[in-house]
Amino acid sequence: MLSERRLQVLRAIVQDYVGTEEPVGSKALTERHNLGVSPATVRNDMAALEDEGFIAQPHTSAGRIPTDKGYRLFVDKLAGVKPMSPPERRAIQNFLEGAVDLDDVVARTVRLLAQLTRQVAVVQYPSLTRSTVRHVELLSLAPARLMLVLITDTGRVEQRMVDCPAPFGESSLADLRARLNSRVAGRRFADVPSLVEDLPEAFEAEDRGTVSTVLSTLLETLVEENEERLMIGGTANLTRFGHDFPLVIRPVLEALEEQVVLLKLLGEAKDPGVTVRIGHENAHEGLNSTSVVSVGYGSGGEAVAKLGVVGPTRMDYPGTMGAVRAVARYVGQILAES
Amino acid sequence: MLSERRLQVLRAIVQDYVGTEEPVGSKALTERHNLGVSPATVRNDMAALEDEGFIAQPHTSAGRIPTDKGYRLFVDKLAGVKPMSPPERRAIQNFLEGAVDLDDVVARTVRLLAQLTRQVAVVQYPSLTRSTVRHVELLSLAPARLMLVLITDTGRVEQRMVDCPAPFGESSLADLRARLNSRVAGRRFADVPSLVEDLPEAFEAEDRGTVSTVLSTLLETLVEENEERLMIGGTANLTRFGHDFPLVIRPVLEALEEQVVLLKLLGEAKDPGVTVRIGHENAHEGLNSTSVVSVGYGSGGEAVAKLGVVGPTRMDYPGTMGAVRAVARYVGQILAES
DNA sequence: GTCTGGCACTCGCGTACGAAGAGTGCCAGG
DNA sequence: CCTGGCACTCTTCGTACGCGAGTGCCAGAC
User: Half-sphere exposure (CA, 13 Å, Cβ side) for B41?
Assistant: First the structure.
């Protein structure tokens, strides 16, 4: 077990290193934080912290830098979440309220997060399966060609083309549209499959093929993987990463382009509050030198999607967590209003 | 005026420099290209080319590298467009044909371009104003709340919320929907404003406010700037930029995040064929060390949007131009089919 | 007039060496 | 258990130097 002072030393190391980006030595520590002990004592503590794996030295005679394990302890025990100041809160709210539609909300959120945290921002669109159905629309584009449009209570709109096996009359179309909506409107998307499975039976034999096709298209859009979308921004902030540039930044950019990777990353965070994944805690190898701070957001109690930032493990955790949490809260409000 | 051989020397310099990324000297030139003359002669030619501003030396006593002006001459006079090989063409076609909707087409196009050219790809969604209307849908979400959905022949779907000044009955809604579609379906979006301006007059006084609101929302979505969207990808390719990394890459990433900048960039290219903007020819300062290769694409004769790549001025112009042109052609085909 | 070989010159790059500085580990004493 | 002192390690930085690539120019050949 680590003594109280050793924890203070760790905290001081993390704070200094995050600020200066340079390994921090015992002398600098005693000067900048009044720990009430001499450098020699701090050195002993540092040796102990190093034995436990919380800090490391890049070279034999340089200062110490925190390890992933050190950051983990810092985040869990030594630091809180730094709340946003009132002016910042107001700025967030004002900026988000200007949005005209969901795309705009998401785009603005990305910009905002990137700017506040000076890191790469990732915002997931509200999940279909965790939203409720506002409306399902069917349009006839050609005799045997329909367009299916899904609209969620969060303002998300998805459309799919449907090629019908047989021509589908205007009256059958109206019938299907009405039946579909009466069954699913206001219900959760997750429940849709069971709500519509017997629908073809209500139709004439000649139309059943088309109805089934429409329904299977509808269900396809709800399959995991397909239904998730996200937006990223602030990649220019990657340039503030460090000195050993290309080697680190390359895999990060590649990972960011793989939506699957990012979705898995966000999906792993089950915590209801802000989740922090540090360095090697991220399964994806390219992100081993980054930390991911994420949180769910939603219009009501339940989270409909996640948002977060990706940055160097050497980041201002309290500040970042505060920004992410605040933005999520306001996005939730905006969605609830729309 | 430059002699034929001097042009050959310039061509050789560009080709070698693009290949090796290193300044090329007179000796290496004569060894790798059989120009039929000695290094000394080439040196004289190089001195002349330098006087004219087509090449430059980074330091006294290093080889020469092409200037923007040199690349310009190369692109205009010395090199053609390298066509894609049949297998490549087939791969492009296969990859694009798997798309399920417009978002997917655009996303696949971005990936494809980025992979083929190993550069940053930019694809603009089909412009609304240059497309034709397939359908306009109006949905009632709440007594005084409508959703307006626009669908183009290229598969693009835009939606907007409309807050009505007064409740709008279901029959009025159906009426408006029918009148709207009969006027604009199949027409070009650019013509929509003049086609609908007298529409409110056909309605009862109590509904006119709502009809006007709907129409003005419709027109707002068509305003330049608002109606343009684009997708970028392959930013990881920026890491192959050069050695003086962060300084160059930073402004490029920043420019890429500014959609306005990119749209202007693509918009400036008026040429019906492939357009190349080299280095300082790009108005935006951050892109002064990049070249932009772009081309319009569309389902029919006219271009509905642009696509292209952004890369270092030191790029394989013939190959890049070939890839961009080929991808644009196939995207056009796909859009025409859908 | 144009091309060529020769030659002296310039510079950037890599290596080597040494001094400076920062930081450490350890130890003996309070 | 803390502290001051001290020897040690390593990185960093500046300087010097030799090497090699490439150039510009010139006199001579075709």
Answer: 10
The dihedral formed by the CA atoms of A321, A327, A329 and A332, expressed in degrees to the nearest 10: -140
CATH topology of domain A86-126+228-337: Beta-Lactamase (3.30.450)
CB contact under 8 A, B160 and A100: yes
Regions in chain B scoring below 50 on pLDDT:
none
Class of CATH domain B129-225 = alpha beta
Does any strand D atom come closer than 7 Å to the Cβ of B41?
no
Distance from CA of A301 to the nearest CA of B (A): 23
| Residue range(s) of every CATH 3.30.390.60 domain in chain B | 129-225
Q: Do B238 and A253 touch (CB under 8 A)?
A: yes
Q: Which of residues 27 to 56 on A have a Cβ less than 7 angstroms from any strand D atom? A: 36-38, 40-41, 44
Amino acid at A320: T
Whether the CB-CB separation of A256 and A262 falls below 8 Å is answered with: yes
Residue A224: pLDDT band with limits 50, 70, 90: low
CB-based contact B160 A134, cutoff 8 Å: no
Instruction: Tell me the CA end-to-end span of chain A in Å, nearest whole number.
Output: 51
Q: Could you tell me the pLDDT band of residue A89, with boundaries at 50, 70 and 90?
A: very high
User: Residue at minimal CA–C1' distance from D23?
Assistant: B61
CATH code for the domain defined by A4-77: 1.10.10.10
